[in-house]
Structure to design on (356 residues):
DNA sequence: ATGATTTGACCATT
DNA sequence: AATGGTCAAATCAT
């Protein structure tokens, strides 16, 4: 156990070192990469040991895990929380600035996440392959009877509760390289969670989000986020519907989800640092909401006129992200302008996503 | 007070 | 009938 902790702490230390050095090596991707590798290695080693210690019996009840398993999972979670706590401390300190710098300099033009678009069918195929059938292990703390003897519904059922409408754009988002890997991915839009569900044959629950501005702008955009069974550090995000709300409200910029993901990803990291507090999801939107000029010419960007989403083929976007994000005019060389090359995003328009 | 999240219940789809 | 998606009351956070 001590070994594990020392591994973790070592990882933290390495990360700190990296942080300190970052300004110096910002343009040495290889060096940074090597550092990251070391950090990751350290944490992975810790994780492996944790798993080895607790994981040997992963019983495969079909629906509900035996108490023992639940306990095991619970312990694991506690470990994870301890790890998280360490990381939080580090992350909280001042990484934010550093990260924005990294993102600015390093991630531009790269697409570390593989965006796959598949129809629902394909998606289903993959998930059945991937999520093998040893379901069960959900870490559900006891559900308390909530005594909401509510039955005054059953009349307002006019919404099409379509199951998995055809056009899902599915994104697999690996855990952030930096810091906490438990954080749900973000994509720059602001979402409101409206549900969570245990999914059969999946270890982890699926979370349901809708656009925060659904009611304001009738924005139909939705997404579902679920951790992969195989690889809990990877999230599968399925998008349904397109944003009809205007960009300044929810979108980080005109970048489609795929390319904004890389930026968002990092920000998520910072923003979700406090994982234990489950309800702090949406500050992110705030900075994004603030002031994101796009397109190099339109500064005022009349929101309602701008087509913010999809089809920005070779556009370079200038966004004042870092500034807006942390409004930290301090040392982080206010990189007022960095551009994303939202090049190879081939989101074929599937506008026929109507429900109403 | 307002807005977001949690979570059991409800209901459409398979 | 089972499963997944959504609703909405209760709760939490700001």
């Amino acid at each position: 156990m001590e070994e594990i902790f020392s591994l973790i702490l070592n990882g933290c230390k390495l990360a700190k070192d990296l942080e300190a050095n970052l300004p110096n090596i910002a343009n040495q991707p290889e060096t940074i990469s090597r550092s990251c590798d070391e950090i990751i290695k350290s944490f992975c080693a810790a994780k492996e040991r944790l798993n080895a210690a607790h994981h040997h019996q992963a019983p495969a009840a079909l629906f509900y895990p035996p108490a023992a398993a639940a306990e095991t999972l619970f312990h694991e979670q506690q470990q994870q929380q301890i790890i998280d706590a360490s990381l939080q401390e580090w992350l909280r300190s001042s990484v934010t600035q550093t990260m924005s710098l990294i993102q600015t300099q390093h991630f531009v033009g790269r697409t570390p996440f593989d965006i796959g678009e598949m129809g629902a069918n394909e998606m289903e195929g993959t998930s059945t392959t991937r999520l093998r059938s040893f379901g069960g292990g959900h870490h559900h703390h006891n559900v308390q009877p909530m005594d909401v003897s509510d039955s005054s519904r059953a009349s307002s059922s006019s919404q099409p509760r379509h199951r998995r409408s055809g056009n899902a754009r599915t994104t697999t988002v690996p855990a952030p390289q930096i810091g906490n890997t438990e954080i749900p991915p973000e994509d720059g839009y602001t979402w409101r969670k409206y549900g969570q569900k245990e999914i059969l044959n999946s270890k982890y629950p699926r979370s349901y989000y809708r656009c925060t501005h659904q009611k304001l702008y009738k924005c139909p955009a939705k997404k579902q986020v679920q951790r992969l069974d195989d690889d809990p550090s990877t999230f599968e995000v399925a998008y349904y519907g397109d944003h009809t709300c205007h960009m300044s409200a929810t979108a980080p910029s005109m970048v489609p989800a795929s390319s904004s993901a890389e930026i968002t990803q990092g920000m998520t990291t910072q923003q979700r640092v406090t994982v234990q507090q489950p309800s702090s999801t949406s500050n992110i939107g705030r900075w994004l909401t603030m002031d994101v000029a796009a397109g190099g010419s339109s500064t005022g960007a009349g929101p309602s006129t701008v087509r913010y989403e999809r089809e920005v083929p070779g556009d370079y976007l200038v966004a004042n992200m870092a500034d807006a994000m942390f409004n930290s005019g301090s040392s982080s060389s206010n990189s007022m302008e960095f551009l994303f090359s939202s090049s190879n995003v081939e989101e074929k328009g599937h506008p026929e996503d109507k429900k109403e």
